[in-house]
Amino acid sequence: MIEHVKYFGKLTATAALSWIKINALGFVSLVVTFTFSYFILFDEKTSSAAEVANSSTLLYTITSKPIQSILLLLIILCPVFILILGNKYIVSKIINRIVNDKSDALLYPVLDKILAKFKTIQPDIIKKGADYSMVKLKLIHQVKNETENKWIKRIIIYGLEKVNLHNEDFASQDADFSTILKVKTMEALHNITEPSRKSIWIVLGLQWLFLLLIWVLN
To answer: Which of 39, 44, 148, 218 holds its CA 20 to 30 A away from the CA of 192?
Structure first.
């Protein structure tokens, strides 16, 4: 138990550090690109800070330089995409780490317990002609209400969302819902590839490209 607590503590620290590094990089990039873009756009029509704040000056710049203004807006929006992509990257990284390191010790026992409980609560839900999408939604809802570690629950839910049950014949006497769902869920999780930061770097690259375009067009 103590080993698991230490393991998840280490994972949480890793996730927090990754989040800080990604968003700090996005913030620094925003400050630099926005500052240069701002002075490129306004240096011709302003001679003081007061004039920069003047609404007529801003309106003039937007109407006279619509493309550059749009590019400046995109520069401001880039950190939002970096935040979203960064969160997705971190979650995928943690899922991948736990699946590869602790499937037998952490995921299998919890998944067995949840499936057994689900089967006990709703023994007749799996039958011929059942809406398996609804079955999966009910199971996911049950997982959310469990008291297990939040990372374990998130991983199991992620795996369940990837499972396709429509091609399975649960009406067969040999079919076992729990076994089939467990196997498919773990297959889906093991198919998760090591996440990449490529999309984050692309957004950062676009931010600097927008700055270059503002400079060229101006």
So the answer is: 148
